[in-house]
Amino acid sequence: MASDDQNSDNTIPISPSSSSSANLSSSVLWKERIIIPTVLAGIAGGAVGLLSKHRKVHGASTMSATYASNFAIVIGCYCGTREFVRVSRIGEPDDLLNSVIGGFGSGALLGRLHAGPIGAARYSVIFAVVGTAFDYATPKIMPTISKLKERKGDWSKLPEWSPIRMLDEEAVAAKRSKEEQIYRKVHNLNKEEP
User: Fold this and answer.
1) pLDDT tens digit string along 26-51?
2) Is the dihedral of CA 58, 60, 66, 67 positive or negative?
3) Is residue 146 very low, low, confident or very high in pLDDT (cuts 50, 70, 90)?
4) For residue 123, which of 63, 77, 86 has the smallest C-alpha distance?
């Protein structure tokens, strides 16, 4: 009986707030790692479809929609499989083994649907290599991208040798008055001619 009292004193009650915070962080992570890449892939696929050589035959809207859906399906399948593996293995989000296993799984599934058993083997290797390389390179590139975002004003400035100039208010007013004078001269010449 004493052991029952000790067990009841040592139990930790699970509060609903702790489980909801875990679900919240999990859903945010899934949104970041599945939904956003899938939407971005769909946008990129639509842009590629607009540039496709087949757009002349099938129409730009058809090719854009086809490429957008294919890109979104491929990236959504890869990212979903990668996250499923991460949750199953109880791994970290940046673990590259999740990318390898997710690439093999999603590549095998899509390759089997597209090209049969041989396609499954080929696609699984391709997805594993490309997905892992992308997941490896992304964290390495992010500091560079954040530096570019910080220097947002610098990259948009035109070089001094550029013929395009940014005018302040005084220069804009001087330019408008000069254009008005030229406009008046042109219209006066046109009125004087028969």
Assistant:
1) 667 788 889 999 999 999 999 999 99
2) positive
3) confident
4) 77
